[in-house]
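Retro notes
What went well: the complex prediction finally ran end to end.
Inputs used:
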Amino acid sequence: MIIDCHGHYTTAPPELEAYHNAQLKILADGGEPSKGTVSITDDQLKESLEGAQLKFQRERGTDLTIFSPRASRMAHHLGNETIARYWAGHCNDIIFRITELYPENFVGVCQLPQFPGVGPENCIPELERAVKELGMIGCNLNPDPSGGHWTSPPLTDRFWYPLYEKMVELDVPAMVHVSSSCNPNFHATGAHYLNADTTAFMQFLTADLFSDFPTLRFVIPHGGGAVPYHWGRYRGIAQDMGRGLLTDLIRDNIFFDTCVYHMAGIRLLTKIVPSDNILFGSEMVGAVRGVDPETGHYYDDTKRYLDDAHWLKKKEKKKIFEGNARKVYPRINAKLA
Amino acid sequence: MIIDCHGHYTTAPPELEAYHNAQLKILADGGEPSKGTVSITDDQLKESLEGAQLKFQRERGTDLTIFSPRASRMAHHLGNETIARYWAGHCNDIIFRITELYPENFVGVCQLPQFPGVGPENCIPELERAVKELGMIGCNLNPDPSGGHWTSPPLTDRFWYPLYEKMVELDVPAMVHVSSSCNPNFHATGAHYLNADTTAFMQFLTADLFSDFPTLRFVIPHGGGAVPYHWGRYRGIAQDMGRGLLTDLIRDNIFFDTCVYHMAGIRLLTKIVPSDNILFGSEMVGAVRGVDPETGHYYDDTKRYLDDAHWLKKKEKKKIFEGNARKVYPRINAKLA
């Protein structure tokens, strides 16, 4: 079985964003929007997926995608806390409907109603609802809800602990994933995403978060940002700081996906990072949508690179494609039973 | 000849930082410091280098280091514009003295008196002085003088153009290099540095800066941050945006150093990025000071990785070790004549 740990609903019908825009407009005009409804039919959902994610699953031979709302439109920096809550609720409901329509193809991960300056306690009800009522198996956690101004405390700060306590209780991991950037310095998918991955890893490296939460698990997407490429730098920094071995640091708590869109990058990732800490992911349909003229295949068809990774043993590939997802997102096992 | 394009004066006698701290204290106490003096003798300078940079040059077999003030202490976010000017002036004077003491071993690159919110016009006099009077061959340009709050416009914004005009006139490149971070999210050498590298590359990718300045040259240090590891992502993003080939984008304008502290990373860098766009660099003595137990050698002894890179032709290695530095920093040729 092949589980893709990193898919966002990037092909939603325009009604979804239109709802959010209307909410923001009411607020901008001095009003207070109510939650309201998002009118999208099942047929619209099906149509948006059949020619995209489902088609690529079939073509590429992947089975199940761990699926969450569009990351770049979480847009935690827009509106206010109430709108963030309504927006996360609707986005998660849509993902739930997709997982009901295609239970063989998608399992849900939720968006949290984060808002800059608001402690993550406000996310707990939605996380509980998503897991207990919508059958979701994890969440996306934005380390920078300000959208590129980085005004929140580091992920290792006690500020975040109430959310971590709930994650541990529910036995769900978080993918560390920023949203769009409102800082003109940072292109979202070309800089902000990768910077956040790198930043989060370094935060984890310099604190004792996993002593406090031994079972807390994070997936750092996009192949871990800059981290595997600079593994020697991080090993050396950890050594200089007396923080031990990276393999010990990450063992039960930090995992990288395989959203690296060329063979040389996948090679480095899989040669450097233990196979126990890598989850297959493609971010399909996502940041890069074209076909690589050097290979004739989609850049984000990351399964193909792994299939060709002859240095990986069969057992290691099985972990990357399936076993580690079952370990990191254990609630998936009930779904697959 | 082996030219290390990336060395900072990280081993300065404590008097240097003490001067800066005293300036900042006067300001904090409501005073207005005058430029004052930094009292460091030639013997102190020699002692600080003999057991460190010079020793490593000899041991590792490198010849000449392109040497600049300590990046993490540029600290453009501290003090005010005047103090930034005094501080850059003193730091550059110290580097000049080192290049006079050891003309065979060091050639200078200057610190700029940047300050958050101040346009880079204020850097032009110091850049001219450094190049014309102190014999320096380039500058370090901080894309985020706020120290982790990223409040300046992107490097491709016209905000920066006055400085670029002067760089082009003087025929000197800039290394894109942030300083320390006052944002608790970003560890300086483990996150902020690499994020800045990634960010700058993506800024260059999405704008037409090099149409406006065809001879403007930037070195993106630390192996280009996350960029080579995500080369497929960047090729794909450029393709989706109609920005052409990365090799065309970087050809005459963007260069990466080799400050990547393990063989797998150097392998990826040198297999993916054209050898015309790579400059040997070590950042010695810098971010990582230990010996790698996996190899028995210093992490930052990057010459060793390149020596072992059997896939590189002799001609390619010569470019990386010498030719590209002469091309990117052409004023070095007069020094070496």
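What we learned: Chain A touches chain B through 60 residues (CB under 8 Å).
What to try next: split runs per interface for comparison.
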